[in-house]
């Protein structure tokens, strides 16, 4: 049985979307058990594999992350993280305050030995539908070359275990594909990655080629990664609006839309981050998944599924072994 802890109170639409997602997940997976942390009065689920743990506090999006984790000891997020630390749950999922969840990951769940800094990883949709593992998307704004090298190790293990890619192609995000391109950070990181015996490094990749299936793992620092991620989300939303307004402006286009309805839905599904769930905080001594703050039930369900896969494939144990041997 896979046991996952869930923060019922985190996110813009909590607890409704969380409850809907949890209900779908336990119906879908017979080997899944959920520990649900939050206000028990607001829980509408009555299921033998869903156990509600009442908490009296919640961490809001406005809370200062570290202070919130230290002061709100009876919050749903803190109690959820503690259940992973104590081995009661194998993974945890929250759509709450990102900074607070990262602090809970660091201070409660704890880092794996040899990991300098955990990294937030997402899977981005690609042209051929394979998806690409991208990190760091916001855990560390400032990074050193060694951190990017370690991100490559973490991303590679994630791609092998969760994405099921035997030998992932690892690329470094840069302003050009030539080896000498970039700033001091990317030049140093390029050297480290290029000299590595344990990484299948394919060189630099430009932002314009990220979704072209040229790599399976793309590495960058958290500042750049977060901006890229938000830009991609914005483009996807704007693209949807442009398509809608253009296609529905004339009668002949409306008829074409009816004919192409299924194809348009398929394209939307391929570009939808909700299909891939949330971001996983890699490098911790437990699986911590950050669902999008504005997640709908489908996206939160995908985040639970992602946590389940990461638990089943024993990704933390693999990282514990691999990071130690690749450290330095």
Short recap of the structure:
The protein has 328 residues and is an alpha/beta fold. Helices cover 45% and strands 16% of the residues. Its EC number is 2.3.1.274.
Structure commentary:
With 328 residues, the protein is an alpha/beta fold. The chain contains ten helices and eleven strands. The chain is globular and about 55 Å long. The mean pLDDT is 89. Pathway: Lipid metabolism; phospholipid metabolism. InterPro entries: FA_synthesis (IPR003664), Phospholipid_synth_PlsX-like (IPR012281). Keywords: Acyltransferase, Cytoplasm, Lipid biosynthesis, Lipid metabolism, Phospholipid biosynthesis, Phospholipid metabolism, Transferase. It catalyses: a fatty acyl-[ACP] + phosphate = an acyl phosphate + holo-[ACP].
Taken in chain order, the helices and strands follow as EHEEHHEHEEHEHEEHHEEHH
Q: State the CATH class of the domain at 1-115 and 283-315.
A: Alpha Beta
| Helix percentage | 40-55%
Number of strands: 11
Strand content bin: 15-25%
Residue runs with pLDDT of under 50 for 5 or more positions: none
Report the CATH topology name of the domain at 1-115 and 283-315: Isopropylmalate Dehydrogenase
């Amino acid at each position: 049985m896979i046991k996952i802890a869930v923060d019922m109170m985190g996110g813009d639409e909590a607890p409704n979307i969380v409850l809907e997602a949890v209900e779908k997940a336990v119906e879908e997976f017979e080997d899944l058990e959920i520990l649900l942390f939050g206000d028990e009065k607001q829980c509408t689920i009555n299921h033998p594999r869903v156990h509600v743990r009442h908490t009296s506090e919640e961490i809001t999006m406005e809370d200062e992350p570290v202070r919130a984790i230290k002061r709100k000891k009876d919050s749903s997020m803190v109690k959820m993280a503690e259940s992973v630390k104590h081995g009661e749950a194998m993974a945890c999922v929250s759509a709450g305050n990102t900074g607070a969840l990262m602090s809970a990951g660091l201070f409660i769940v704890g880092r794996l030995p040899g990991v300098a800094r955990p990294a937030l990883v997402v899977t981005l949709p690609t042209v051929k539908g394979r998806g690409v593992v991208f990190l760091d998307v916001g855990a560390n704004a400032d990074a050193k070359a060694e951190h990017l090298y370690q991100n490559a190790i973490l991303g590679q293990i994630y791609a092998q275990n969760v994405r099921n890619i035997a030998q992932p192609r690892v690329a470094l995000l840069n302003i050009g594909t030539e080896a000498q391109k970039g700033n001091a950070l990317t030049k140093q990181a390029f050297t480290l990655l290029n000299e590595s015996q344990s990484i299948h490094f394919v060189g630099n990749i430009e932002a314009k080629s990220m979704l072209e299936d040229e790599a399976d793992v793309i590495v960058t620092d958290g500042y750049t990664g977060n901006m890229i991620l938000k830009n991609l989300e914005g483009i996807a939303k704007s693209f949807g609006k442009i398509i809608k307004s253009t296609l529905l402006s004339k009668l002949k286009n409306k008829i074409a839309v009816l004919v192409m309805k299924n194809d348009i839905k398929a394209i939307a599904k391929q570009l939808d981050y909700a299909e891939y769930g949330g971001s996983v905080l890699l490098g911790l001594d437990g699986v911590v998944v950050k669902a999008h703050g504005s997640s709908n039930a489908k996206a939160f369900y995908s985040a639970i599924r992602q946590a389940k896969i990461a638990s089943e494939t024993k990704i933390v144990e693999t990282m514990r072994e691999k990071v130690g041997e690749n450290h330095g």
